[in-house]
Structure formats: structure tokens, C-alpha cells
Amino acid sequence: AKFTRYAGGTTTLTSGTHNDVDAAAINVIFADSTSGEVRIGGFQNGVSGQVIHIVKIDTANTVVIEHNEESNTQRIHVGAASDSSLGANKYGGFTLVCNGSNWFEVDFTV
Prior knowledge:
This protein is an all-beta fold. Helices cover about 0% and strands about 45% of the residues. It is built from no helices and 12 strands. It has strands at about 10-15, 15-20, 20, 25-30, 40, 40-45, 50-55, 65, 75, 85, 90-100, 105-110. The protein has an 8-stranded mixed sheet with strand order 1-4-7-11-12-9-6-3, with no helix packed on it. The chain has a 4-stranded mixed sheet with strand order 2-5-8-10, with no helix packed on it. It is globular and about 35 Å long.
């Protein structure tokens, strides 16, 4: 199998719903819920073997990973087969791995 290298970049998402987030060259997403809930529905441009860590950087509001959201090019499949969330007053994060077509939650830490 061919190994695809990508630069380890970061981005920050703030309040609102984020669909088809561009995953090209990203391996860390900082979720800033200071102004409201952050919802991540899926990605585009992810490559097989790519790993993204989503890190909740404040405790103000909830961060939600939407399970199998239809409106996204690359859907996220959550282990519990339902949305995954980190509530207010908590830090933590999610680790997702791409198979080239979809993303899979492989770790969730509170």
C-alpha cells in the first residue's frame, strides 16, 4: 500500500455547525466553544490513514461530533452509533481516523 504523507496542520472551529470541514493537511482541530456549541458533522479531502485529534479548549459550552451525518462528503462514524459530545465544564477530545472515504471515532477522552 502506498503511504500518503500530509503536513500536520491545525485549525480552530468556533460556535455553529461545521459540515464538510476541509481536512487537507490537518491533524489537530481546536474546538472553541466560548461563544456557543460547536457541532462537527463531517469532512472532505481526508486521506487514508490520516488522524485528526479534536481538542476542546474551553469549558463554556458543548462540543458535538455528529454520527453518520448525511450532508457530508466524508461522514463520521461514532463508536456508540449516535452523536458523541463533551459537555460544558469539561475539557477533553476525540480522535478520528480516515479510511479515505469516511472517518471513524477511535478514542473519546473526558
